[in-house]
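From the pipeline queue, job 12 of 40. The input is one protein chain; the requested action is below.

Action: predict structure.
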Amino acid sequence: MSIGNSPEDERPFEDGSEEARPSIGRALQQARIAAGLTVDDVSTATRVRLPIVHAIEADDFTPCGGDVYARGHIRTLARAVHLDPAPLIEQYDATHGGRPAPTSAAPMFEAERIRPERRGPNWTAAMVAAIVAVIGFVGFTAVKGGDEGTTDVADGTAPTTSAPATPTPKSDKTVDETPVPSDGAIAAAPQDKVTVQVSAADGKSWISAKDHNGRLLFDGLLKQGDSKTFQDSERINLVLGDAGAIQLYVNGKKIEDDWQPGAVERLTYTKGDPQAG
């Protein structure tokens, strides 16, 4: 102790500003309350899980899973409650050993990081190889067939000629090219489910189909010649934008309804049908 100095003069200088500075969690909590937000509101807006938000506001960064994730969560929460994240990140670095060496990878602190999908096999190369093999086989067969014909002529054996095929006369009746279920498909329709096939026979039409739970099975445009098949354990609900262009098969049986072109029809079919819903 120096002679002539009071004990107060011997105390080390204390920076009052550091004592007044709130912790990271306290600063985030105060800003959230000032913004009129709950912890649930912040978790929903940032997609940071609720337990992590609670832990950070309590200055517990263990659930973050590391310094990189902790800095990312601090930055995300600060922006959600309208705080500048830079001072909070500096405060975190000062109390947790500074920033790590920079990495060339993109930021990895997203709340719900989606892992890249594993690449599948190269089907294109396999298809090319298969096509080349088929072409080679066809060429070999054609060459072999030509050689056999030449051998017959050289030996003096008259090559066998087949009678020309009689052309099948064309029918004057126009054939309906709209795809229809075969007898096998009709017989294969499950008895414990309702099966509905929608075909755009006479033009394009918008259709919508839902199952008995209201789940949307299809909502879009069917071009002429296209068809869709829907199946459910109890009920299929349909909306036809142009019923006059549609041909329906329910549980393997054709629905014979005289719908007008441009008419909108709302239909329901169950396992006991066919009958208009």
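Job complete. The mean pLDDT is 76.
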